[in-house]
Design goal:
The complex is a heterodimer of chains A (406) and B (440). Chain A has 406 residues and is an alpha+beta fold. Chain A contains 12 helices and 12 strands. In chain A, a hairpin with a 5-residue loop joins β8 and β9. In chain B, the strands form 2 sheets. In chain B, strands 2-3-8-5-7-6 form a 6-stranded mixed beta barrel. A two-stranded antiparallel sheet of chain B has the order 9-10. In chain B, a hairpin with a 6-residue loop joins β2 and β3. Chains A and B meet through α2 and α8 of A and α2, α8, α11 and α13 of B.
Chain lengths: 406, 440
């Protein structure tokens, strides 16, 4: 089909063509960036914490009354929890991944702080915590019972002679892969030997990570945490989480009423809480994109319908001279493809340029070339679909009436 | 003439209903989406205390020195954001500002007269806190200076907690059991929840405010642990006295400095203080100080997340698309009425007359689009509230809908529609009367 007559006809109606092209360009630019941001957000939310998330319930326990024998009260609580049918194991600690808050410490590469310090999460582990959380040990060993020392809040913190680190931290500290058996300095001039490496354990603040507090650096220290505020992490058999959660609270209160249990929830709820703002912002983006596509489509339909009414006589004349219905439809579709194609190309360019300039000022990640192309494809396909109905209407104009101007 | 044009505009709305409603819809949806995002952005980034944000300051000193400073962004120095007990009380004693307060977050167990006890967030501060941050009192007042020196067990309640504990009587003068001790209520605040929670941004700055305020000295006397964040450059000595003597930062400090001279003097005081600590052998580095007012502090702490800014940009782009859409639709609409304009021109109307008529029509359409935008904004904010789940209170406070914003929405809609209507209106005035009349 000859493109030149189409282009020449278009050049006589520049305004409308420019308007559609502009709409398509802006839509492509916005859509590509929206898709990229939503994709990044989804990837962010889907990272595993390293724990056996489907079968873990947690609760925050605050002891009231006397604080004399917290250690034995905690052990009594744990014994009670472990006795509940459906429970695989239970441990007490200061925090856990995605809790939102917890201890952090600095990790020095050398024995003085002048070497670079990394901020990492610091978890207090008993010898049973590794299995209770469901972490995967990929090198070395777990802590032994003898290595666990008790720490009561307010007493002097002693640097532990051994530690377990996450794989991400091990790789950063020892790029040659020989972390096991080496020493790290946990904000102290006394060294801690790395005796084990776990595949993955996120920090409590992983949902809101920043450059100074990355999400995957954690160190596990052999410490039984003893304080009025403890976090109980309970691993259940598959499918028993909800039942165990209710039973656990009842049993603990039956054991002693001098406590307040809060934030008792499954790990799925904990995860949902932490990523709630991510999800709502993502939803806003998706809704805006859907509206955007709807507005663009309606705009194309309206403008093309208007063109059809403007050019009734020409269409009627073409039909009278022998053009078939299909030719008319084809004409409008090619015309729209030219306009939308030009607009989409401009929009893809806008998307890349805009993203580059925003990436530095707003700390957005750069989008690959794939996103603008994908966005362009979607919008052009949509505009082609949108122009079908006006084109069908144009094709079904009765030729004689159209020429006469009715 | 404007009155006549308005009548005309309203009458012509009924003709060509589809096109007109499409324009109204385009404008309404664009404005609705943009205002939803903009309202959230305004709520998050607005000045929480506009009449005093320029006189309230956060000082920062180099308490940890270059070697153990927290890692900051490349190229800039990041001083610790909180204070050790030694420094905070040192500042209070020196009294270098007209009003000042050291404070920290606490978590207290409230035991009501009937029912189980529950945990509530509170704040331990000096009595200047209430004047400095303009916390409004519904009844009673803050505690006296004597209460602070005596380490008295007194408390100021927030409106919600006071209503919950004492629904039938005034709370002032009553006693509340906190952490097992009885505290006397000296005052009750009106509902007060500055957004963002600028005086302590170490946690979530958009959380609900505290309902309990106790004197700083009382909290220290009862060895109440901080419920906020804390950082330590070195391991502190054991026990509570160790925490007070050590180099852990866990206290916030604010000073009220009414004019530029006071700011200069305070900066000098901070340098002098750092020098004194160097002489005492505690600091081994030259002084480095920073003094930020409320807005500078919020910017420093990155209180508005970048995602919100990105969303504002995207929503603005969406509005642009809707307006371009509206231009095309208005072109179509005016072109359909070329005959009517031709008759007016033939009867003697000048081009500016036609221009004014079309502009009035555009303004009316814009106003209608603005009203639709208002409804859609309310819908968008309600949906936002729904998807934020259990943080409904936070969202409700965050996305309030006040008359200023409503007026802004309609004004924005009219303005935007007028802008996009300029080209179609100009095209409409260029109608050739003779040609149009002949063609019919």
């Amino acid at each position: 089909m000859d493109l030149i007559p189409i282009v020449r006809a278009l050049s006589r109606r520049k305004t409308g063509a420019i308007l559609i092209a502009l709409q398509v360009a802006l839509s492509v630019a916005i859509l590509s960036n929206c898709i990229a941001v939503v994709q990044q957000r989804l990837a962010h939310m889907r990272r595993s914490s390293g724990m056996d998330e489907a079968n873990i319930v947690t609760m925050a326990n605050q002891f009231a009354g006397t604080t004399e024998d917290l250690a034995s009260r905690i052990q009594a609580d744990l014994a009670q929890l472990r006795a509940i049918p459906g429970v695989v194991d239970a441990v007490a600690g200061q925090s856990f991944p995605l809790r939102g808050y917890g201890r952090s410490t600095g990790v020095w590469r050398a024995s003085d702080a002048k070497a670079t310090t990394l901020n990492v999460a610091d978890y207090a582990f008993s010898e049973r915590t590794l299995d209770s959380w469901g972490l995967k040990l990929i090198a070395g060993r777990n802590f032994t019972h003898a290595e666990i020392r008790e720490f009561q809040l307010g007493s002097k913190w002693l640097t532990s002679p051994v530690a377990i680190v996450t794989q991400a931290l091990a790789r950063t500290l020892f790029p040659r892969g020989d972390a096991l058996g080496h020493d790290v300095y946990l904000a102290s001039s006394a060294p801690s030997r790395i005796v084990g490496i776990v595949e993955r354990a996120e920090t409590p603040w992983a949902a809101h990570e920043s450059a100074t507090y990355p999400a995957e650096y954690a160190v596990l220290e052999p410490t039984q945490w003893v304080a009025t505020n403890v976090a109980y992490v309970v691993r259940t058999q598959p499918g028993r989480s909800a039942a165990v959660l209710t039973m656990a609270q009842k049993q603990l209160y039956a054991l002693s009423r001098e406590r307040v249990i809060s934030e008792a929830q499954t790990f799925e709820d904990t995860r949902a809480d932490q990523y709630r703002s991510d999800r709502s912002l993502g939803l806003i983006l998706i809704v805006v994109c859907a509206l955007l596509l709807a507005v663009t489509a309606l705009g194309i339909i309206a403008l093309t319908t208007y063109w059809v009414t403007q050019r009734r006589r020409q269409i009627g004349m073409r039909r009278a001279l022998g053009a078939r219905r299909g030719n008319i439809i084809q004409y409008f579709q090619i015309e729209n493809l030219l306009i939308a194609g030009a607009g989409a190309a401009l929009g893809a360019l806008l998307a890349l340029v805009g993203n580059l300039s925003l990436a530095t000022s707003l700390e957005m990640e750069r989008v690959g070339v794939g996103y603008p192309c994908f966005g362009a494809l979607i919008v052009v396909a949509l505009s082609q679909a949108a122009v079908t109905w006006p084109a069908l209407r144009a094709a079904s104009l009765p030729p004689a009436a159209a020429i006469r101007g009715q | 003439m404007i009155g006549y044009y308005l009548q005309l505009a309203l009458r012509t709305l009924r003709r060509n209903v589809i096109l007109t409603s499409l324009i109204i819809a385009a404008v309404g949806v664009g404005i609705g989406a943009y205002m939803t995002v903009l309202t959230m952005f305004i709520a998050m980034s607005g000045d929480p205390i506009p009449d005093k944000s320029a006189v309230l300051f956060v000082p920062q000193i180099d308490a940890w020195g270059p070697a153990t400073r927290p890692p900051g962004t490349a190229g800039s120095v990041r001083l610790p954001e909180q204070f050790t007990y030694r420094d905070a009380t040192g500042f209070m004693r020196a009294h270098a500002a007209r009003r000042q307060t050291a404070m920290y977050a606490v978590q207290l167990d409230v035991t009501p007269p009937v029912g189980a006890s529950y945990s509530q967030p509170g704040r331990a501060a000096y009595r200047d806190f209430f004047d400095m941050f303009e916390a409004p009192f519904a009844a009673g007042a803050a505690w006296k200076v004597k209460d602070e020196t005596d380490l008295a067990d007194v408390v100021v309640l927030g409106a919600t907690l006071a209503a919950r504990l004492f629904p039938h009587a005034s709370a002032v003068g009553q006693t509340v059991s906190l952490d097992g001790r009885l505290y006397r209520v000296t005052g009750v605040l009106k509902p007060w929840n500055p957004m963002p929670h600028f005086y302590d941004v170490s946690g979530n700055p958009f959380t609900l405010g505290e309902q309990l305020f106790i004197p700083f000295t009382t909290a220290i006397g009862h060895e109440m642990q901080s419920a906020g964040g804390q950082g330590c450059a070195s391991v502190p000595p054991p026990g509570w006295s160790g925490k007070l003597a050590g180099e852990c930062i866990w206290l916030q400090f604010w000073a009220e400095l009414p004019d530029a001279a006071a700011v200069r003097n305070y900066r000098q005081f901070l340098v002098n203080y750092s020098d004194e600590q160097r002489r005492l052998g505690r600091f081994h580095w030259p002084p480095l100080v920073q003094l930020s007012n409320v807005k500078e502090w919020l910017a420093l702490e990155h209180v508005v997340p970048n995602e919100v800014r990105v969303n504002s940009l995207l929503a603005f782009g969406f509005l642009a698309v809707c307006l371009v859409n509206a231009v095309g639709l208005m072109l179509a609409r005016f072109a359909a009425r070329a005959g009517e304009f031709a008759i007016r021109r033939a009867l003697g109307a000048s081009r500016p007359d036609i221009f004014l008529q079309c502009l009035t029509e555009t303004a009316v359409v814009g106003a209608l689009g603005g009203i639709l935008g208002l409804l859609l904004t309310a819908l968008g904010l309600a949906a936002n509230r729904a998807s934020l789940g259990t943080l409904a209170d936070y969202a409700g406070r965050l996305t309030h809908f006040d008359p200023a914003i409503m007026a802004l929405t309609v004004a924005l809609a009219v303005g935007a529609t007028l802008c996009s209507g300029l080209y179609p209106t100009w095209r409409a005035t260029r109608v050739q009367p003779a040609w149009q009349l002949k063609a019919q």
